[in-house]
Specification:
- This protein is an alpha+beta fold and 129 residues long.
- The strands form two sheets. Strands 1, 2, 3, 4 and 5 form a five-stranded mixed sheet that branches. A four-stranded mixed sheet has the order 6-9-8-7, covered by helices on one side.
- A hairpin with a 5-residue loop joins β8 and β9.
């Protein structure tokens, strides 16, 4: 058994698609649009085979997330980039491009080397070896 995909709502589907394509090597399918339901989505595929569905509907309300606000439910996505140097390089690139780095790069108490950062919608992303 495997997780087939994970889905997240967004208010700007094109911006989020470009973010995951640029920084995490995602490849997108053609946009699916259901006019009657006011729904749009992309499936993003990653080199590992993992998939992320980005979804948009004007009916979905924005949830006000923050790094200091924790709610029950999904917490973060973690991307393994292969090496400490790649974590450092991607962290620098993201920071230079104006994305918020929450923590790191650093070694965690459980032995991971990682950076925590926010995607354009404020979703927490971990970049790890």
């Amino acid at each position: 058994m495997k997780i087939e995909h994970i889905a997240i709502w967004t208010r700007d589907i094109e911006r989020l698609k470009m973010f995951y394509e640029k920084y995490f090597n995602a490849t997108s399918n053609a946009k699916y649009i259901n006019v009657g339901k006011q729904f749009e989505s992309y499936f993003l595929s990653f080199p590992s085979g993992a998939r992320l569905e980005l979804m948009y509907s004007p009916k979905v309300e924005k949830l006000h997330n923050g790094i200091n606000i924790q709610r029950v439910g999904y917490v973060h996505l973690a991307f393994s980039v292969g090496s400490k140097e790649q974590v450092d390089d991607l962290t620098s690139q993201l920071q230079n491009d104006g994305y918020q780095i929450v923590d790191g790069p650093r070694y965690t108490g459980d032995g991971y080397y990682e950076t925590s950062m926010l995607d354009p919608d404020g979703n927490l992303i971990e970049v790890t070896i």
